[in-house]
Specification:
Length: 641
């Protein structure tokens, strides 16, 4: 079996890999005068001081794997899997041989997992990046509903990103810490001037930050037309907000008519289909130059047309959909280049957010950048600049052959199917935020995860494989591992909650046990001792060694364990925003949340094509679960008085 084929099978079951930040990161404090002095070598020196990702002991992983299966499979299935695990782990057996191979790999590489992970989770994944892979972030509604307000805000946002870029370029980005441990900062250096490129069997990612002449332009898309906007003066200084605004006005005025052929729509296709269309598109010299300009740009700004008005209650859910897929071919889906790592979306109606291509980074660096921009836009004023004449931003031309036109039509049809299939609900839970679990000496993240287990159990009367991402950034080039939120302890709690024969005090004890179990798994995961990436490594090692795939990985229990009906992530931000993403299995949910002090923002997604899932229903049950856990604790405290 080829590595590509196996990785495609694995990656179909892999969720979105953001970082759950259960331990609060020290504040970056980024909005301050940027250091003008470059500190060359600082980044490299920091990176070299970070430890390597460990390969956990085989026996430990196999024991923890069996424990993780307990709440999600039957006893009969578990007994069968236990036999396979014992066979795999026996002295001198297949497991030990593969473990030695992994340990050899770890000695020879900077990070034994990172290249495999990039390929398996992202570049070999053949589904469209839209909905299936790229996460979005919904920002609070902006106070404008006309093009002047839109362009003014866009100008400030662009200046804010360039301010952040200076910090990265000068290597003066403050190192983040998790507790006392410094974190890998590599992802910050991957998100600007980068782009994904489709390939027939595997995609690639290009990054232009370290080339001899790094890019000095961004891409702006308006009315489905792409423009190259140079954002630096000839002396290397960034354009002022006022200068950027006047350039955006020129773009706006020269693209009043909608483009008949939205080339950007092609990037929403299945990756194999897009790879064929891509090669066809860039045969033409003009098209190739335009595509390269987009790929090299520092980032993209999408100036969106207004969307149909909805009620205040539905507004955030509608914006989440707009951010994730653009709303369909009639609206803003062609106003994108979905392969671009960073795309900021600013609607004429005040809607605002970003979408990012996931392969170079997880959520937290993106959110740190967003927090910086939001602060910057609040503080920066439009100052009249000296009237240096600036050249007209260059419109990127595309020659559309009948074949390309047909590819665009196919892309529109497929995208519209995806748009109709995505069911997304943004909910603000406002009874309490992270301060309440903290007041009870409980981890807010673990508390929310247990509430999710309760909500799911009440709907489906069972527990399911649940994915929450844990950061491995304590290690050099670390990405993520899985926190498995469905545990023996969480199942004991959710089964007891609605049992009238049990006392509240007993239920609260079970809740505390479930929260502690989740916290313990989280600590284990961020220290590189979770089970998922280790099991994946053993499987990929067997493929690399050209031996038959061990039975433990062909077992039904492994398939159940990798079928994440709940794919979840906590992505905390100072800004009152929420990240969102699609489910990773056809009958699953994507759940992302940002716990503020006194409320929690949730984005819940499902597919309309699955009769068993419904985002609004899970949101409703989740709200009830959070309320009931709150009442349970308060009632139990009263009864003690």
């Amino acid at each position: 079996m080829s590595l590509q084929l196996t990785s495609a099978i694995i990656s179909r079951q892999l969720p979105h890999f953001f970082m759950a930040k259960p331990v609060i990161l020290r504040s970056l404090g980024l909005v301050k005068p940027v250091s003008l002095t470059k500190i060359p070598g600082r980044y490299l020196a920091h990176q070299e001081g970070l430890p390597h990702l460990p390969v956990p002991p085989l026996k430990q992983t196999l024991e923890r794997y069996l424990l993780a299966l307990k709440p999600i499979i039957s006893q009969e299935e578990w007994n069968h899997t236990q036999e396979l695990v014992q066979e795999f782990g026996k002295p001198g057996g297949v497991g030990e041989r593969l473990q030695k191979g992994l340990e050899r790999r770890a000695r020879k590489t900077e990070n034994w997992l990172s290249d495999w992970w990039l390929q398996t989770a992202y570049l070999d994944y053949r589904m469209p990046v839209v909905v299936h892979s790229s996460p979005g972030v919904v920002l609070p509604k902006l106070q404008f509903d006309d093009c002047q307000g839109q362009l003014r805000y866009a100008a400030k946002l662009i200046a804010g990103v360039l301010d952040f870029k200076t910090i990265i370029d000068n290597e003066t980005l403050p190192v983040e810490y998790l507790g006392e441990k410094p974190l890998c900062m590599n992802q910050y250096y991957q998100i600007l001037s980068s782009c994904r490129i489709p390939g027939a069997k595997r995609d690639s990612v290009v990054n232009y930050t370290r080339v001899k002449n790094p890019p000095t332009h961004i891409t702006v898309v308006h009315n489905l037309q792409f423009f190259q906007l140079d954002v630096y003066n000839s002396d290397g200084s960034p354009l002022t907000v006022d200068q950027i605004y006047s350039q955006l006005e020129k773009i706006w005025n020269s693209s009043l008519q909608t483009n008949k052929e939205p080339v950007g729509m092609l990037t929403s296709q299945h990756r194999n289909t897009w790879a064929v269309a891509y090669n066809n598109l860039i045969k033409d010299k003009t098209n190739k130059e335009s595509v390269r300009t987009i790929q090299k740009s520092i980032f993209t700004v999408c100036l969106d047309a207004p969307m149909p008005r909805v009620s205040d209650e539905l507004y955030k859910s509608r914006v989440a959909a707009q951010i994730l897929h653009g709303g369909g071919s009639r609206w803003n889906s062609g106003n994108r280049w979905f392969d671009k790592t960073l795309q900021f979306i600013i609607g004429e109606d005040g809607s605002c957010g970003l979408i990012y291509e996931h392969s170079p980074a997880e959520g937290p660096p993106i959110v740190s950048l967003l927090d910086h921009i939001v602060e910057y836009t609040k503080k920066c004023e439009m100052v009249r600049s000296p009237m240096i004449p600036l050249s007209m931003p260059k419109k990127l031309r595309f020659n559309i052959t009948p074949e390309i036109k047909q590819d665009i039509e196919k892309a529109k049809q497929n995208l519209n199917i995806m748009v109709h299939d995505l069911d997304i609900k943004v909910m603000v839970f406002d009874l309490y935020g992270k301060n309440f679990p903290k007041s009870q000496m409980m981890s807010p993240d673990a508390f929310i995860q247990v509430a999710l287990q309760l909500a799911y159990f009440r709907i489906y009367k069972c527990s399911c494989a649940t994915y929450e991402s844990a950061s491995l950034r304590m290690f050099r080039l670390g990405r993520t591992d899985t926190i498995r939120s469905a545990s023996v302890s969480s199942l004991a709690f959710v089964q007891a909650v609605d049992d009238t024969t049990k006392a509240n005090t007993e239920k609260v004890e079970l809740l505390r046990d479930a929260v502690k179990a989740h916290r313990a798994y989280t600590d284990m995961a961020i220290r590189g001792h979770a089970i998922d990436r280790h099991l994946l490594g053993l499987k990929l090692q067997s493929i690399e060694d050209l031996v038959s795939i061990p039975e433990i990985f062909m077992d039904t229990s492994y398939a159940v364990a990798m079928h994440f009906n709940l794919s979840t992530s906590q992505v905390p931000a100072k800004t009152d925003c929420v990240m969102c993403f699609g489910p990773v299995v056809p009958d699953g949910y994507g759940v992302c949340y940002n716990a503020m002090d006194d409320h929690i923002n949730f984005a819940i997604s499902a597919y309309n094509s699955c009769a068993d899932t419904n985002a609004a229903r899970l949101a409703h049950y989740l709200e009830n679960a959070l309320q009931d856990m709150h009442s349970l604790i308060l009632q139990s405290q009263k009864s003690k008085l």
